[in-house]
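Quick one: co-fold with nicotinamide-adenine-dinucleotide.
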Amino acid sequence: MADRYLHFTGTAPGRFLTRRLGLPQPAPLRRWSLDTPRLEGPLLHLTAGSGAGAGADTETSAGLAEVLAGVGLPVVGRADRPGAIVLDATGVTTAAGLGDVHAALHPVVRSLAPGGRVVVLGTVPSPDDHHQAAAQQALEGFVRSLGKEIGRGSTAQLVRIPGVRVPDVPASGIRLPGGGATAQGAASTLRFLLSPRSAYVSGQVIELTDATPEPVTDPAAPLAGRTALVTGAARGIGAAVAAVLARDGARVIALDVPGVREELERTAARLGATPLPLDITAPDAADHIAAAAPDGLGVLVHNAGITRDRRLANMPADRWTSVVDVNLDSVLRTTDELLKGGAVTRGGRIVATASIAGIAGNNGQTNYAASKAGIIGLVRSLGPRAAADHGVTVNAVAPGFIETKMTAAVPFFIREAGRRMNSLSQGGLPVDVAEAVAWFAQPDSTAVNGQVLRVCGQSLLGA
Ligand code: NAD
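Sure, here it is.
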């Protein structure tokens, strides 16, 4: 459903009126396309604190410089109008050191181009050093606040690179293990965050592991040779996920219930995908999926989902059961069976779909929110074990207000509130979720595991 308010605020009278009335002023987001594959403007690379970027670990600094060079923007130390700013704050280990964050960003933040990106690189707060932990945790509050105030379609995120304490490193005592190799683990994440593909992602904290990334042989088709299965792919977010994975070179199997077979076949034909009419709650669903991908699955996307809203006091058991069965139980069942049977190949990627309702809760959605919170539990618990036992990562997207049939059915005033109550003052598009799924699916996203990425424009709900 078209966002007429967004169009209106893009006109001169609309701008004038909304400014005078103090109403939200959403900036049109610049999303990825063949014509706009990159952000506008150079990448400004800054350092705060006395850690890696300041030269305490030259291997990591060199690795990070190489990774930033791979983003596709000219990397500079000074710029009038940067398209992106990356602040290496891995060396900030004291409250006083936070002053360096202010000193680095205060003079340049206003010059960021519209639709720009700020990415702060931090490290994991230490359980053994409360000064370091305080300083690194402070970066989270900093980034989440910056995301709320930066405006003009720009975003801010924090990426935590794993760190270890090594007392022989002067000043910070923190060194990034594996040096350049650890920086390489951040490559896919920085490519995603520093591009138009992450247009509707803001205020997020991503914590990377020290897993060694797999190489990408063809950057234009990173998923070439891999089979990807997407559930609920006939329409909405699932169809967009299928389209983006196909764009990235995957052979796509599009699964949806037999009841929407025609829509599914149309979507699959448009994408060159194979349709698989199947109810994901069927007891033998995993067998059918494994049979449809005899060479194994490189990417498994659990996207199918339903709502059956009612307040708990009015909710019959069948509404509860059907939602939990589709949104959570079938995900648990098929994931276990496909992993156990070896149908998800080594280096494989499993991506599930949560929701901000599973984080914030929602009136009338005890069943839906429980199922989506369950997905978060699944991802956090299974991620490390799936990596150790099967060489597979497990992550989730948590969409906010996304313009689909599901949200078009929401009553007008609630829909308008959902659209505006986020830092970007607009709803997201299915492609925004799809781009996040594609980032999880990248071969070199090995260090991205057990993460839940909110694709919600930094919604106020559950923040
Ligand atoms: P949608 O209703 O447009 O599409 C969901 C698809 O899943 C449909 O094609 C449906 O037929 C399919 N499906 C339902 N039950 C199935 C089953 N048993 N087996 C196989 N397929 C089944 O919804 P959407 O808005 O595209 O949402 C996709 C996912 O994103 C869902 O998990 C949803 O909960 C989640 N989500 C959506 C939003 C949003 O704003 N649209 C927000 C948060 C989370």
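If it helps, The pocket of nicotinamide-adenine-dinucleotide is lined by residues 231-232, 234-238, 256-257, 260, 279-281, 303-306, 326, 353, 355, 399, 401-402, 404-407 (CB under 6 Å).
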